[in-house]
Amino acid sequence: MKPETFFHLPSGTVRFWVPVGQRFVGASIHSVDLHYRYCAHETTDQPLATFLAHAGEIEVAVRRRLDAGALEPVILRGPDLQPVPSP
Asked: What does the radius of gyration of the chain's CA atoms come to, in whole angstroms?
């Protein structure tokens, strides 16, 4: 069963799990990175709601980091969310 995504106030991160094979890999992303990637022109955005609205794209970024050799927990940064250029 997939653990529930939540906003961790002390660290300012959204913590979540991504299904990879038969298990779930833990990951997090800071609220500032979510804000500047998805809601840069807003002042009332909520990190958890922003994450949930873009979870698919964020999970793809986690899988890219894992494919590149990242270890759990995967900590996403702003550059991880930038669009990947087409070949």
From this structure: 13
Q: How far apart are the first and last CA of the chain?
A: 36
pLDDT tens track for 51-87: 999 999 999 999 999 999 999 999 999 999 977 665 6
How would DSSP label each residue in 2-70?
Answer: PPPPEEETTTTEEEEEEEETTEEEEEEEEHHHHHHHH-TT-SS--HHHHHHHTHHHHHHHHHHHHHTTP
Give dist(CA 43, CA 35) in Å, integer: 9
Q: How confident is the model at residue 40 (pLDDT cuts 50, 70, 90)?
A: confident
